[in-house]
Write a structure and sequence with these properties.
Chain lengths: 572, 210
């Protein structure tokens, strides 16, 4: 058990939590952790040391309390916050006399620190495993692909994204953690043998973790770097697609994927399992640190920094999650844009979010009505059917009665599915029927009639009327409610001044109509001018380039958003 | 997707032997029986605190950690089982910690064969969330086999969600009713049964699909 008992050494250990990392001399720290691990190598001795340490901690706490009481009595020196370091002139451990209650306190404190040691052990252990997985991913999957030129570098980058950067971040994190908690550094690892030796050392020492250590600063300092997970997470879908495409067309790659599963390091896991690990890891720091806080006494120097560190990581995880959600939403909008045929402006806009996709039965569709009653009179409706003439005439069995509706935060689009026989560069799956600003759109409930239940009417900005029905009354109510919720939010965003907020709705609508019209006018000019300027590459019209412009900043309107149908999923 | 993972094959002799020189060639494939095993990827979903990690631990290690419970435990655990005389490797993935982060989850669920929706029978709320877990998290629900597991059946007296039967009408389509069970990760009630049943259902379903 060495010299841990000598008071000067023990003093040093206790003060570590009170001194900022930078102020501790590294040699001194090394000495400390050496003495610490030495003292703990034997299990029984370790228990004794644990008890002694806890006693010491308790003693300090008592001294600090006393000091505080004195201060309060004398009301002198009121500005100073009592910390554990104040009672540095504490009496020797053995002479400590305790009352029954204090003994109980001491016992529970010891238990807390034992649990804290387990927490720290888990943090370190899972970090080690995580780094190992990332290393395996790089060595078993990434490097052979690159070395053997199985894939083009560009594809490799799409699949693995910044996984190597993430690996380096976590190597550093692991290094710092192990220095602080045990005196083993993974930095010295150069080859397999050393890695094996390190693994053995770290697992045997794993139980000898210093239970009082402060680690919040390590996480806090690296908090901002965790933001690079955004890049990784947002790239993930592209990575999956890239793997699928290459697997399909490249036999060599497909073979590689199969073979590497049985690599001894792979542990029978496929590439996907390795790629997913970073996505799993980030939210888990929150759980780990939260549990550590539970077992950190409030007067411990690390208590407040830990809560701050958790908040920081939680913020980053939320941010990553939000970015991912936004990027997925934009991808959905891009897909709609690609699949929609008809005369419309660009629907991919930085601020635009898809809120709802719905399929209706279209009751006043010309074809639908002609199916019900073949009289000609119904076809002279206000509809100007923009369906392409090249397409075959509707057959009686065709399901023309379906109307797809997309509700955005500022827009509503109605479309019908196209017939199968479309040929073109991108399969157009929908024909545009209506494109209407949400504030200029009305949704009106309609009473049931004998063979048409749960119906309602959508009136667009050009006063076209779409009578549609949904499968159930609940679905209808839900849709109407959601629609008006989106509309009211759009309206609130529109009401710039107090006067606007009180203005009658029709005035606002008029104002908005003018604004939209002038905007469309501008965009038309824009379109014309830029098509001219882009003559060399006619594909890059503003329609396309808008995707890549703007970093989708519109956060404010997003934050107000409350999604009733999803709320119960976000458990805190 | 779906059964894609379960159909590993020994690379055919006709496959281009470009990788022969490198040390990651077929020499690693030592045991054919391991390779011919079907692999089932199962994910556990549910509110935080319903006992997803504990269920996994109970099934694979027959342990319940009452003393010190690891915060996250393993990312996944595997167990080799025989289902209807077919050797199957169950790979059970834990989603602990991801409850708050829906968008992260979506990526995670790709490539899974089966999804066990876990709730706490003492918490009505955790049962109510099950529907939203299923709908919000999974983009193509038809690709998945769903089962419902009601955990913490050992705590009898304060039971809120009484029986799965009672709440059956609430259940959404696509959940395999016959393999949904009440289990206890603490004393192991029905845990092995539930997972075996889940594996069998998934395999049957895959067979039907293919």
């Amino acid at each position: 058990m060495g010299n841990v008992g000598s008071s000067s050494e023990a003093e040093g250990i206790f003060e570590e939590s009170d001194i900022p990392e930078s102020e501790i001399d590294s040699a001194e720290r090394l000495k400390r952790s050496n003495s610490m691990t030495e003292g703990l190598l034997d299990g029984k001795e370790g228990e004794k040391t644990m008890t002694k340490w806890t006693k010491k901690y308790y003693q300090r706490r008592r001294a600090a309390k006393q000091k505080q009481l004195e201060q309060e009595k004398g009301k002198s020196d009121t500005g100073r916050r009592p910390t554990l370091s104040i009672g540095s002139s504490a009496e020797p451990v053995h002479s400590l006399t305790l009352s029954e209650k204090e003994k109980e306190d001491l016992k529970s404190l010891e238990k807390t620190f034992q649990k804290r040691r387990e927490n720290l052990n888990e943090i370190l252990g899972t970090e080690e495993r995580y780094v190992k997985q990332l290393q395996t991913c790089a060595q078993v999957w990434l490097e052979p692909l690159r070395r053997e030129h199985i894939l083009e570098e560009q594809h490799i980058r799409t699949i693995f994204s910044i996984i190597e950067v993430i690996l380096h971040l976590h190597l550093d994190l692991l290094d710092q953690l192990s220095r602080r908690l045990i005196n083993v550094t993974p930095r010295t690892i150069n080859n397999k043998d050393e890695l094996a030796a390190y693994n053995v050392a770290s697992t045997t020492l794993g139980a000898e973790i210093y239970p009082f250590a402060s680690i919040a600063d390590i996480f806090k300092a690296r908090g901002d770097f965790l933001k690079m997970y955004i890049t990784y997470v947002n790239n993930f879908n592209a990575a999956l697609t890239c793997i699928a495409i290459n697997k399909e067309k490249d036999e060599r790659f497909a073979h590689f994927l199969k073979v590497q599963i049985h690599h001894p390091e792979s542990n029978n896991l496929d590439l996907l399992s390795f790629l997913i690990t970073p996505i799993q890891r980030l939210p888990r720091y929150i759980l780990l640190l939260e549990d550590l806080i539970k077992n950190t006494p409030q007067d411990h120097a690390d208590y407040v920094p830990l809560t701050l560190a958790v908040e920081k990581i939680r913020g980053i995880a939320d941010h990553v999650n939000e970015e991912k959600r936004v990027s997925e939403n934009i991808q959905q909008i891009m897909k709609i844009q690609d699949e929609l045929a008809g005369d419309f402006e660009n629907i991919v806009e930085p601020h635009r979010r898809l809120k709802r996709t719905e399929k209706f039965t279209w009751l006043n569709s010309p074809t639908f009505r002609s199916m019900v009653s073949p009289s000609k009179s119904v076809t002279d409706e206000v509809f100007d059917d923009i369906e392409d003439n090249r397409l075959a005439a509707p057959s009686p069995t065709r399901d023309v009665a379906t109307l797809t509706c997309w509700v955005f935060n500022d827009l509503i689009i109605l479309a019908t599915p196209t017939r199968q026989s479309w040929t073109g560069p991108i399969a157009k799956r929908y024909n545009l029927k209506a494109y209407s600003h949400i504030l200029l759109t009305e949704v009106r409930d309609m009473p049931d009639i004998t063979n048409q239940k749960n119906r309602f009417e959508i009136v667009t900005e050009n006063n076209k009327s779409f009578v549609v029905s949904m499968t159930s009354g609940d679905a209808k109510e839900n849709f109407i409610k959601d629609f008006y919720w989106e509309r009211s939010k759009a309206n609130n965003l529109l009401a710039f001044s107090a006067a606007d907020a009180n203005a009658p709705v029709h005035e606002l609508r008029e104002k908005e109509r003018k604004r939209i019209e002038s905007k469309r006018q501008l965009e038309k000019q824009d379109l014309v001018s830029s098509t001219i300027s882009n003559e060399g590459s006619p594909l890059i019209t503003p329609l396309r380039s808008a995707r890549y412009s703007g970093a989708f900043k519109e956060k404010d309107s997003e934050n107000i958003r409350v999604e009733p149908q999803r709320s119960c999923c976000s458990i805190v | 997707m779906g059964c894609g993972n379960s159909q590993e094959e020994v690379p055919k002799a006709s496959a281009p032997n470009l990788l022969e020189k490198a040390d990651y060639s077929e020499s690693y494939i030592r045991n054919k029986s391991v390779i011919n095993r079907k692999l089932l990827k199962v994910i556990l979903l549910g509110d935080s605190g319903v006992g997803k990690s504990s269920l996994m631990n109970q099934y694979v290690h027959q342990q319940f950690a009452a003393e010190y419970k690891a915060t996250i435990g393993a990312d996944f655990l595997t167990k080799h089982v025989m289902i209807d005389n077919v050797p199957v490797t169950m790979q059970i993935w834990d989603t602990a910690g991801q409850e708050r982060f829906q968008s992260l989850g979506v990526a995670f669920y790709r490539g899974a064969d089966c999804c066990a929706l876990v709730f706490d029978i003492n918490s009505e709320k955790s049962f109510d969330s099950v529907t939203s877990w299923k709908e919000a998290q999974i983009q193509n629900p038809h690709d998945f086999c769903f089962v419902l597991l009601g955990n913490k059946v050992d705590i009898e007296n304060q039971r809120q969600v009484l029986k799965i039967q009672r709440v059956n009408p609430l259940m959404m389509s696509g959940v395999q009713k016959e393999s949904s069970q009440l289990v206890s990760a603490k004393n192991g009630t029905c845990v092995v049964d539930a997972f075996d049943c889940l594996a069998a259902t998934t395999l049957n379903r895959d067979d039907l699909v293919s």
